[in-house]
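hey so i finally got around to running the thing on that chain from the lab meeting. sorry it took forever, my laptop kept dying and i had to restart like 3 times. anyway pasting the input first so we r on the same page abt which one it is
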Amino acid sequence: MISGGKTTTYRVRVKEGITVNKLLAELQSSVILRDDLPSFGNVDHYDVFKELIGIQTPFIEGIFFPDTYFVEKGTTISSFLSLTHRKMSEELSSAWGKKADNLPLKSEEELLILASIIEKETGLAEDATRISQVFNKRLVINMKLQSDPTVIYAMGDPFDGNIRKRDLAIKSPYNTYTTRGLPPTPIAIPSRRSLLAASRPAEGDYLYFVARGDGSSQFSKTLAEHNDAVREYQILRKSARKRSL
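ok and heres what got predicted. didnt touch it at all, straight out
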């Protein structure tokens, strides 16, 4: 809470990496904001937000910028969302204006979608541009993105923390193991870091990466190298954990 003269403002945080449903749940439980959203029921969220906020994107996932905002108590959720959407529009346009010349993305919307995947895939900030390099290169050569977070998004509430082999075959436009190219919408709210990483990927020829287990990623140029990395950082580590239990 910050007081300036007669006006008192309160901090309201929009977290990066969350879905719009999670964001709405957090805002609707806030004691600072006034809930003026309708009971959605069978009403399409997109139609509601298009009327209340005037969104221009063809989707509502990922369109609110993650940041700490200062508002007066009683500010409506719709006006707060409008504020965060305008901020995302500004940040997205800025990132798009800085894009690399050879970027395969065709629009700001595609940049936002890719940034959301990078957001969910990145453990360490310094890996973001290299993860972007992998995905951008795969888009250029029409190789499937094969991103686990897109599968998790496709699974929705049934996801229990584990991805099984059968999950990688589920039918969904968000399953980038079965569908080429980008999913139809973002899968989360991306940060400024992820927006910039999507627009300006690192230089390199990596096609694969795997989590090392400490937040960082191991990058590989060939499938053989990648399989070795998976064995080292995932299969053997899981086996060692099981033996220690």
